[in-house]
Amino acid sequence: MAKKIDKTEERIVAVEEAFSKTEQFIEKNQKIILIVVGAIILMVLGYFGFKRLYLAPREKEAQSQMFMAEKYFETDSLTKALKGDGNYLGFLDIIDQYKFTKSANLSHYYAGICYLKKGEFQNAIDQLNDFSSGDELIAPMAIGAMGDAYMELNNTDKAIDYYLKAADKRKNDLTSPMFLMKAGMAYELEGKNDLALKTYLRIKTEFARTNEGRDIDKYIARLNELVKK
User: Fold this and answer.
1) Most buried in the list 30, 80, 111, 195, measured by CB within 10 Å?
2) Taking Cα atoms as reference points, which of 147, 110, 158 lies closest to residue 130?
3) Model pLDDT, residue 58
4) pLDDT at residue 169 in the model
5) What pLDDT, on the 0 to 100 scale, is given for residue 146?
6) For the whole model, what pTM was predicted?
7) pLDDT at position 44, please?
8) Backbone angles phi, psi at 101, to 5 degrees
9) What is the 8-class DSSP label of residue 210?
């Protein structure tokens, strides 16, 4: 019993010593601690102030400007969509003038697709590479569009990498089988029939109910014959 009491007393003493050391440290470094805490508070307040007082109104303004650029995009008026019409800004202007907004980020995607359609493939890659999204459809579409641009630049290996990334970015029945199909066809162009077959089999296994899945058997049958030879 006495031993238990002794151990308890030892623990109490150890805790008291720890508290004492902590108090001494705080007293010794009080100014530094206050400066650090104050800096953290200022950073937090600054961040929320930036979002609410600066970014929110800028976002609203950017959206009103972007509306017409999207209209031009829908009608394939690609130059006006990119550079504006003199009254409304284009996607490139929105990127430049409304940095850090969601509209500027989305404008990178639109600009990338515009450049892809105009045949300016490196510009398309540059813009799409600056776009970020977790959206179910837009995120893989942006990555897949980079694959298309690399295909046009005759960089088939890189195109395949991006097609596969697009297929796996957000697995769904629309974009995943579409980009797996593109990857398979690119593999065939490279003469990598075994990898093409493996990719087509993924479509059959994982996306059998899609349009690509319902049509994939003929591709698999043809490649099975080629691989055997």
Assistant:
1) 111
2) 110
3) 77
4) 95
5) 98
6) 0.76
7) 43
8) -90, 160
9) S
Structure tokens at 121: 């493939």
Burial 95-120 (b: 16+ CB within 10 A, else e): beebeebebbbbbbbbbbbbbbeeeb
Domain 133-229 sits in CATH 1.25.40.10: yes
For residues 15 and 12, give the distance between their C-alpha atoms in angstroms, rounded to a whole number. 5
Domain ranges of the chain: 133-229
Hunting for tokens 């690509």 — which residue is that? 212
15 CB burial (10 A radius; 0-12, 13-18, 19+): exposed
CA–CA separation, 54 and 62 (whole Å): 12
Tell how many helices (H) and how many strands (E) occur in the chain.
13, 0
Residue 122, pLDDT score: 98
What is the distance between the alpha carbons of residues 13 and 30, in angstroms, rounded to a whole number? 25
Instruction: Check residue 13 and give its pLDDT.
Output: 52
DSSP annotation string for 10-79 = HHHHHHHHHHHHHHHHHHHTHHHHHHHHHHHHHHHHHHHHIIIIIIHHHHHHHHHHHHHHHHHHHTT-HH
Contacts of 105 (CB under 8 A, 6+ apart): 131, 132, 133
Q: What pLDDT, on a 0 to 100 scale, did the predictor assign at position 131?
A: 97
